[in-house]
């Protein structure tokens, strides 16, 4: 009897144990004696690369894996402008790679534009002027401004200045005396000739002979001749109208007929003096010129009778002198060779 009871109890105990284990695996209340701590789940192994599917033919070769697709390029219009670029030292945003700053493109070289307009005096085969245009322009901005124009000559020829050749010349002139004394004007005029030598452009020498006739400041008849030596200093020898300054010395002699009561007395005077003035010469050609001169002179008597017979006597003060002065206005022509 006892043996038969134990034989029937073994299957009953095994069934209860299985039911309790399945209950612990499904819902296990906290603090239940039948609950046991569950083992931690095992870490899952990383997935392995998928194997290539087997082909039905044993002789077929395995195909190579495809190359990864290249990332799509960002168009220039979508590039970040310099104003939106992050400042230096800023941290990149989380969850993405840092954005690269936009690098400005280098400026284009200067544009060269040829102008087709030509002046009426230019030759047809002359090259057009070169115009340099401001290259700092961008699309959508106003047209650039012209910042420089440079003429491009086809050929530049440097001509040396012609060498000066010494010139000889002969001058002929008419002249009139200028002066006034005791309310009387000098009324004398005459002719003159001269020989001129011009070794350099700025300097010339002249030897002249002149003769005047008329009435002097006393109202007496006078005939006077003089020889002069002058140096001419030219200020602008390359111009058409050349300005010069004459400087020199002269000596003269005069015959004077002085009227007395019922008769005429003839006197001979000798003078030595200096002269200076200003002149202008109009060059009609390299060989012909028209000079115009204004001379002033100062002189004194050098003849033997100068002390016994002075030329000027002041009747009120009885003062005497042999020094005189005046002026000459000349106009003539010079022929060079």
Quick recap:
With 337 residues, this protein is mainly beta. It has one helix and 15 strands.
**What is the name of the CATH class of the domain at 167-336?**
Mainly Beta
- Structural class category: mainly beta
Shape field: rod-shaped
Tell how many strands the DSSP assignment holds. Answer: 15
Please characterize this protein's 3D structure:
With 337 residues, the protein is mainly beta. It has a domain at 167-336: Porin (Beta Barrel), CATH 2.40.160. It contains one helix and 15 strands; from the N terminus they run H-E-E-E-E-E-E-E-E-E-E-E-E-E-E-E. The strands form four sheets. The protein has an eight-stranded antiparallel barrel with strand order 4-7-8-9-10-11-12-15. A three-stranded antiparallel β-sheet has the order 1-2-3, with no helix packed on it. Strand 9 (221-234) and strand 10 form a beta hairpin. The longest helix has 25 residues, at 2-26. Mean pLDDT is 74; it is low at 1-5 and 52-63.
Sequence-ordered SSE layout with sheet pairings:
Elements (H helix, E strand, L loop, with lengths): L1 H25 L84 E4 L15 E4 L12 E5 L16 E12 L1 E2 L2 E2 L1 E14 L2 E13 L5 E14 L6 E20 L2 E21 L4 E14 L10 E2 L6 E2 L1 E14 L1
């Amino acid at each position: 009897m006892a043996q038969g009871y134990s034989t029937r109890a073994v299957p009953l105990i095994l069934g209860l144990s299985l039911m309790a284990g399945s209950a612990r695996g499904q819902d296990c209340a906290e603090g239940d004696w039948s609950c046991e701590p569950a083992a931690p789940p095992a870490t899952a192994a990383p997935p392995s690369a998928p194997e290539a599917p087997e082909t039905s033919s044993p002789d077929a070769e395995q195909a190579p894996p495809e190359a990864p697709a290249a990332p799509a390029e960002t168009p220039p219009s979508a590039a970040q402008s310099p104003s939106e670029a992050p400042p230096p030292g800023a941290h990149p945003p989380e969850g993405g790679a840092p954005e690269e700053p936009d690098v400005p493109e280098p400026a284009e070289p200067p544009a060269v534009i040829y102008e087709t307009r030509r002046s009426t005096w230019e030759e047809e085969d002359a090259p057009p002027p070169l115009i340099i245009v401001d290259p700092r322009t961008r699309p959508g901005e106003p047209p650039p401004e012209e910042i420089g124009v440079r003429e491009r000559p086809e050929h530049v020829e440097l001509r040396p200045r012609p060498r000066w050749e010494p010139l000889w010349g002969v001058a002929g002139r008419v002249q009139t005396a200028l002066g006034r004394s005791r309310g009387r004007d000098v009324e004398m005029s005459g002719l003159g000739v001269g020989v001129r030598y011009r070794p350099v452009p700025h300097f010339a020498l002249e030897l002249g002979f002149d003769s005047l006739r008329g009435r002097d400041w006393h109202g007496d008849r006078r005939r006077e001749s003089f020889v002069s030596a002058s140096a001419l200093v030219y200020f602008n020898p390359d111009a058409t109208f050349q300005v010069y300054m004459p400087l020199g010395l002269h000596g003269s002699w005069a015959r004077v007929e002085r009227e007395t009561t019922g008769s005429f007395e003839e006197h001979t005077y000798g003078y030595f003096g200096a002269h200076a003035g200003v002149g202008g010469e109009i060059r009609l050609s390299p060989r012909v010129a028209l000079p115009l001169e204004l001379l002033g002179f100062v002189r004194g008597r050098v003849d033997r009778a100068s002390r016994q017979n002075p030329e000027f006597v002041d009747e009120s003060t009885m003062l005497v002198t042999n020094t005189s002065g005046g002026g000459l206005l000349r106009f003539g022509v010079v022929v060079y060779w």
